[in-house]
Amino acid sequence: MQKLEQLQRKVKNAEDLQSIVRTMKLMASVGIHQFEDAVDSLGDYYNTLERGLQVVLSKEFSEARPFLSSGNEGSAGIIVIGSSQSLCGPFDESILTYTLDKIREDEKKGAQFFVLGERLTGYFRQEEEVLISKQFILPGSAGGINGLVLDLLTGIEEWQATQDIRSIRVLHNKLTGKEGYTPRSQHLLPLNKQWLEQLIDQPWPSNNLPQYSADGHALFLSLLRQYLFVSLYRAVAESLAAEYSSRLFAMQQAEKKIDERLEKLNRAYTHERQSSITSELLDIMAGFEAAQSMDDCNSETG
């Protein structure tokens, strides 16, 4: 009976854990769609931004020259996006390894880092070659990305003003399928001259060429800031979608293990329960036979 009670407790614990895992699966699934929608919503705005750069640079390309590569880009600033919570598999280990390989490959000694995510920051603090300039907390919803990106832009301006950092890159994981992700690197600054020249050479979609009366320099700087904003927003949203996908996959694996465990426990419980019932029946039959024998003996002696 004691073993039966132990099995009942184990089954109850496994069912409670199964309920928690299913809730986390649901939350991860909602998170993936939320951040994928955030990425998709940037498409039209990014195209409009490119058209704006095309108009301004077609008239005065020199506005972009201070932001093109000059061979002397000062120190490097690297923004790395990880996760803030556990239960997402080797998500942070993957981007950490990729980042270390990149800085060794590019020989970026003395690079400054912005690290997004407390969990990833813990891994980075164990690496002597990484100088963390600032740590950022990742938002739990798409609505929090705006504020985070504005803080990053302020940090980039401080880098440029105080440490002469003109080469800036963002590294993060990106979804590649329902269960997979891969690390990627994107250069933010200096601007890619070939990309800008291709923008200028693109045909305009109508016969009405746009005109503007605002100051060209101020307009270009505004468009550049928006370009950095959209690039960082997309990187954060893509990384969060990949993180939630990794967490969903981990929960699916955990649910599978729990199901297997529950099946074994239920089988053991059924077997133990059957043995207990059989034992009780045998005891009853033995008692009945003993009582019947006593009655027979009493009848013969009487």
TrEMBL record:
InterPro entries: Alt_ATP_synth_F1_gsu (IPR017709), ATP_synth_F1_ATPase_gsu (IPR035968), ATP_synth_F1_gsu (IPR000131). It is found in: Membrane. Keywords: ATP synthesis, CF(1), Hydrogen ion transport, Ion transport, Membrane, Transport. Coiled coil: none annotated. It is a peripheral membrane protein. It comes from the Bacteria. Belongs to the ATPase gamma chain family. Produces ATP from ADP in the presence of a proton gradient across the membrane. The gamma chain is believed to be important in regulating ATPase activity and the flow of protons through the CF(0) complex. This is F0F1 ATP synthase subunit gamma. It comes from Fodinibius salicampi.
